[in-house]
Write a structure and sequence with these properties.
Elements lengths: L3 H14 L14 H18 L1 H10 L5 H11 L2 H14 L1 H8 L4 H7 L5 H7 L5 H14 L2 H10 L2 H10 L3 H8 L5 H10 L2 H9 L5 H12 L3 H13 L3 H13 L3 H8 L4 H8 L9 H11 L3 H11 L1 H12 L4
Helix pairs in contact: 1-2, 3-5, 4-6, 5-6, 5-7, 5-8, 7-9, 9-11, 10-12, 12-14, 12-15, 14-16, 15-18, 19-21, 21-22
C-alpha cells in the first residue's frame, strides 16, 4: 500500500504543476518530508513568478464593486486563475476580500481551493466568513476531495479547526481528511482540539468501508502512545466478530499490516486476545501474508509483542512462522 500521506503529497504537487498524479508516480520513493519540501519550493517559485501580475490586478480591486467582482469571477474567471490570484488580493485588500468572498458560492470556492498559494491560507482564513469556509469544506466532503481539504486543515488555526468540527457532520470525511495530515505533531494538535466524543465517532467510522479503514489505521498508527491506545481500544471495542474479521482481512489484503501492528501494539491484552481468536486468522495463507508484510517493513518487534499477548492457535502459528529461518 502506498502511504496515504505520500500519495496526498503527490496529488497536491500534481495540482500545483497542473498534471495528472500518475505522471509523478516515480516520486513515491521519496519520504513525506522531502515531497512536501519539493512541493512547497515549486509552489513558492510558481507564485513568486506571478507576483507582479497579481499586484497589478490587486490595484484594480478598489475600483470594482464587490457584487460585480463576485458575479464576473464565477462567470468568467477559471478556478485555477482565481485561486492563484486570491492570495495576493486577499493579502493586499483583506476587507475587500471578505466582502467579495461572502458573495461567492461554496461550489466556486471549492473549485478554486486546490489552486490557492499555501502560504496565504492562514492569512486568508481569518477574513473569510466562517459559514462560507464551512460551506466550501462541506462541498469538498461531498466531492470526496479530501486531499484539497487537508491543505486547509494543515494550515488552520485552533478556532477554525473547531469551526470545521462543528460545521461538518461527515465523520468519514473528517477521518479521510485528518488522515492526510502530513506530520504526527500536527495530527496530535488536531485530535487534541476536537471534542473527545466526536473523535471517538470519527475513529469508529473507519469500520464503514475499505478506504476509511485504511485511513483510520494510518491515522491511529501515527498518534502518540496514549491516544493511540485509547482510540485503538475505542475502535476495536465497537467491532463484532464478523467486522473484526473484515478489518483483519482488509488490512492484510491492502498491505496495511504495518499500520495495523502500530495500533495493535498499544492495545490491552484482553483486546489482543479477542483479535487472536478471530476465525479470520485461520484463513488460508492469511497469517503467512501478515507475517511476511511485517518482516518486510521491519516490524518484527511489534509483531512479536502482539503475538505474545494474543495467545491461541493463531499466535502459536505466527510464532512458528517467525522462528523459521529467512529464505
Amino acid at each position: 500500500m502506498t502511504d496515504l500521506v505520500t500519495r496526498a503529497q503527490i496529488i497536491m504537487l500534481a495540482e500545483t504543476v497542473d498534471v495528472e498524479p500518475e505522471r509523478l508516480a516515480g516520486l513515491e520513493r521519496l519520504d513525506v518530508a522531502r515531497l512536501r519540501a519539493l512541493r512547497e519550493r515549486i509552489s513558492d517559485v510558481l507564485f513568486d513568478e506571478h507576483a507582479q501580475t497579481f499586484a497589478r490586478v490587486s490595484k484594480l480591486a478598489p475600483l470594482v464593486p464587490n457584487a460585480l467582482v463576485a458575479k464576473l469571477s464565477e462567470a468568467l474567471v477559471p478556478p485555477l486563475v482565481a485561486g492563484r490570484a486570491a492570495g495576493a488580493l486577499g493579502t493586499a485588500h483583506p476587507g475587500r476580500a471578505a466582502g467579495v468572498l461572502a458573495l461567492l458560492s461554496a461550489r466556486y470556492m471549492a473549485d478554486c481551493a486546490p489552486y490557492l498559494d499555501p502560504r496565504t491560507i492562514s492569512a486568508l482564513a481569518p477574513v473569510i466568513p466562517v459559514p462560507l469556509l464551512v460551506g466550501a469544506a462541506n462541498e469538498l466532503m461531498v466531492r470526496r476531495a479530501y486531499v484539497t481539504a487537508s491543505r486547509f486543515l494543515n494550515y488552520a488555526g485552533p478556532e477554525l479547526i473547531q469551526d470545521f468540527e462543528r460545521g461538518i457532520p461527515d465523520d468519514v470525511g473528517l477521518l479521510m481528511t485528518a488522515a492526510l495530515t502530513d506530520t504526527p505533531r500536527r495530527l496530535a494538535v488536531i485530535v487534541r482540539l476536537l471534542p473527545r466524543q466526536r473523535v471517538e465517532s470519527i475513529v469508529r467510522s473507519a469500520a464503514t468501508g475499505e478506504e476509511p479503514l485504511l485511513a483510520g489505521l494510518s491515522l491511529l498508527s501515527r498518534l502518540d502512545d496514549g491516544p493511540r491506545s485509547e482510540l485503538g481500544e475505542t475502535f476495536f471495542a465497537a467491532l463484532d466478530d464478523e467486522r473484526l474479521g473484515w478489518v483483519l482481512r482488509t488490512a492484510t489484503r491492502h498491505g496495511a499490516v504495518p499500520e495495523l501492528l502500530g495500533v495493535a501494539s498499544r492495545l490491552s491484552e484482553p483486546t489482543l486476545r479477542l483479535i487472536g481468536g478471530s476465525p479470520a486468522l485461520a484463513d488460508d495463507g492469511m497469517l503467512e501474508d501478515l507475517v511476511e508484510q511485517a518482516l518486510a517493513r521491519g516490524r518484527r518487534a511489534e509483531l512479536e509483542s502482539v503475538v505474545a499477548a494474543m495467545g491461541g492457535p493463531a499466535a502459536r502459528r505466527a510464532a512458528e512462522l517467525l522462528a523459521e529461518p529467512a529464505a
